[in-house]
Amino acid sequence: MTAFTLETPAGGIHVARWRPAGTPPAGSPIVLLHDSLGCIALWRDFPALLAEASGREVIAYDRVGYGESAPCPGPQPATFVTDEALETFATLRESLALERFSLLGHSVGGSMAIEAAGQHADGCEALITVAAQAYLEPRTLAGIREAEAAFAEPGAMRRLERYHGDKAEWVLRSWVDNWHSEAFRDWHLDDALPRVRCPTLAIHGEHDEFGSLAQPRRIASRTPGPAEPNLLPCGHVPHRECPEVLADIVARFLSRP
């Protein structure tokens, strides 16, 4: 794995790249987009597993405000899902000369991947969403409130501080406050999904605590590719709960003619 800082108009972002051992990468790179509390470190061993399983280079980055990237100078706007595709991801693509690529996003990173696949349809060869949200539903809001209460327990915020440092409070509030804001009440990806032109695989845990199975079914039914989602016997974080299985599923999907 190699890592570096890439300057963007919003600030420096931390970027990491993995390549399969002992052989040149085959096929376009896979770009990972993390979840609402995530960062490169919280992908854990999954990027390396995916690089080996797929034979491709895997690229991940910490969004501005997260992980080892620069702090965000203010509140995260309600348009942050669309903004990521149009701004930071666009800068990453141009800077790394990613003419062709595949996208894999987890949770809200999956929502961002949908936006990016549509906005960058000229280069996106495949889209994989994992536990992604396509619209706002009560289950999502309830899960966020439960997590917020858990982080209020003594010492719990240290888990976020381990990965986000002094940005941890901003990370938590951005998640909780945006999703519960009036501006986000009617949020959905109904306009973004039809713009996706590449093969798409929607993956979801059967026991996902933040989204019902209606989420991946909406994604699968409105994008090219399998009409039904790939369901895994896990919760919201397959790359932590069953990383080898997830890497194999993704690799087989990307290897299809």
Automatic annotation (TrEMBL):
<dbReference type="InterPro" id="IPR000073">
    <property type="entry name" value="AB_hydrolase_1"/>
</dbReference>
<feature type="domain" description="AB hydrolase-1">
    <location>
        <begin position="30"/>
        <end position="248"/>
    </location>
</feature>
<dbReference type="InterPro" id="IPR029058">
    <property type="entry name" value="AB_hydrolase_fold"/>
</dbReference>
<dbReference type="Pfam" id="PF12697">
    <property type="entry name" value="Abhydrolase_6"/>
</dbReference>
<protein>
    <submittedName>
        <fullName>Pimeloyl-ACP methyl ester carboxylesterase</fullName>
    </submittedName>
</protein>
